[in-house]
């Protein structure tokens, strides 16, 4: 039986990193090893799929731009349309992996598996995690049972939803968590599924990367004890289309900056109320009267994920009722 065809799009990150010695698990240079060398270093892949690589970028993921996101998503979409391609893997730095995975799940119209993968240790380190993570990613991308589940992330033997997952620890290999739990696990190249996403993604998304040419500017301001309005005032005047407030607790906002956020909204910028607390979700009209202020709440999305959805949604609408619907549905 013919093996499935899987393309690996490489963007850099620690999975392509190299350190000076085997004990360097945290001190190393990201984005050093090319995709062909990554594939050549993992001969086990050839038993799972016909794999070929494309080097899209070679950067640490904290330096990726919104333009990079567009370029990558358009390439994924074009490949997904090819009848001779069964699945796509994207190797990526872990720092912003969750944002790219969410962006792809919102904008690429395909049922074919798309898997984003990274590593916490460079390949030169003792107990490097990249090889198994990549092997698992190719296995999932080559599997029919991974179709139609949205963009997936394979880290630490788990299959996570690209929408839900976040980097939650910055020094261990079990770095990616979702408060709603992984979708499944991969053990010795076999997928074990336990749940599936219910939020709209890929095929059911009203957004399509093939028709998106630019993303509107959206910025984030954090809430904290002692917060002043400096960042909010400056961002409000900077030409952005939306401001995500990463508030405290249940998206609470310090009373002294509420008027500043109201001013930002009055000046035409959409205000999105999220929380800096990693888990849980923000309720509408609790903590702040969102209906009265015409603010949007970010549901369970962390500020950086809320920013991604806001950018995508605002390629279509600036209507706050519509935006709130989108934040409930995706
Ligand atoms: N573990 C990693 O991949 C971290 C790295 N800074 C990156 O995001 O590219």
Automatic annotation (TrEMBL):
Organism domain of life: Bacteria
SUPFAM superfamilies (alphabetical): Glutaminase/Asparaginase
Entry annotation: catalytic residues: 14, 14 (o-isoaspartyl threonine intermediate), 94
Positions of substrate binding: 61, 94-95
Sequence ranges assigned to domain Asparaginase/glutaminase C-terminal in this UniProt record: 218-327
GO molecular function, a single term: asparaginase activity
Domain L-asparaginase N-terminal: 5-196
GO biological process entries: asparagine metabolic process
Gene3D superfamilies in the record: 3.40.50.40, L-asparaginase, N-terminal domain
Keyword list, A-Z: Hydrolase, Signal
InterPro entries: AsnASE_II, Asp/glu_Ase-like_sf, Asparaginase/glutaminase-like, Asparaginase/glutaminase_AS1, Asparaginase/glutaminase_AS2, Asparaginase_C, L-asparaginase_C, L-asparaginase_N
PANTHER family per record: 60 KDA LYSOPHOSPHOLIPASE, L-ASPARAGINASE
Record family assignment: Belongs to the asparaginase 1 family.
Protein name per UniProt: Asparaginase
């Amino acid at each position: 039986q013919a093996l499935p065809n899987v393309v690996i799009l490489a963007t850099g990150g620690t999975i392509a990193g190299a350190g000076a010695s085997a004990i360097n698990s945290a001190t190393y240079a990201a984005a050093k090893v090319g995709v062909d060398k990554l594939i050549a270093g993992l001969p086990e892949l050839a038993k799972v799929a016909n794999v070929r690589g494309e080097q899209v970028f070679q950067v640490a993921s904290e330096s990726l731009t919104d333009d990079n996101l567009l370029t990558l998503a358009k390439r994924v979409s074009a490949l997904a349309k090819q009848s001779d391609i069964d699945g796509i893997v994207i190797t990526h730095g872990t720092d912003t992996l969750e944002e790219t995975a969410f962006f792809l799940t919102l904008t690429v119209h395909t049922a074919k598996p798309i898997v984003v993968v990274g590593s916490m240790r460079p390949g030169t380190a003792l107990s490097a995690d990249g090889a198994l993570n990549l092997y698992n990613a190719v296995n999932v991308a080559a599997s029919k049972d991974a179709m139609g589940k949205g963009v997936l992330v394979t880290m630490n033997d788990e299959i996570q939803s690209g929408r839900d997952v976040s980097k939650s620890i910055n020094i261990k290999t079990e770095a990616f968590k979702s408060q709603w739990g992984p979708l499944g696990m991969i053990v010795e190249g076999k997928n074990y599924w336990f749940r599936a996403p219910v939020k709209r993604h890929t095929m059911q998304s009203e957004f399509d990367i093939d028709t998106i040419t630019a993303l509107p500017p959206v910025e984030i301001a954090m809430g904290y004890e002692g917060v002043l309005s400096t960042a909010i005032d400056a961002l409000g005047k900077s030409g952005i289309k939306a401001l995500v407030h990463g508030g405290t607790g249940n998206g609470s906002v310090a009373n002294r900056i509420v008027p500043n956020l109201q001013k930002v909204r009055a000046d035409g910028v959409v205000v999105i109320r999220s929380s800096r607390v990693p888990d849980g979700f923000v309720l509408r009209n609790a903590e702040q009267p969102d209906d009265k202020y015409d603010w949007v709440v970010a549901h369970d999305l962390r500020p950086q994920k809320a920013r991604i959805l806001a950018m995508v949604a605002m390629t279509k609408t600036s209507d706050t009722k519509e935006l709130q619907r989108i934040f409930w549905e995706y």
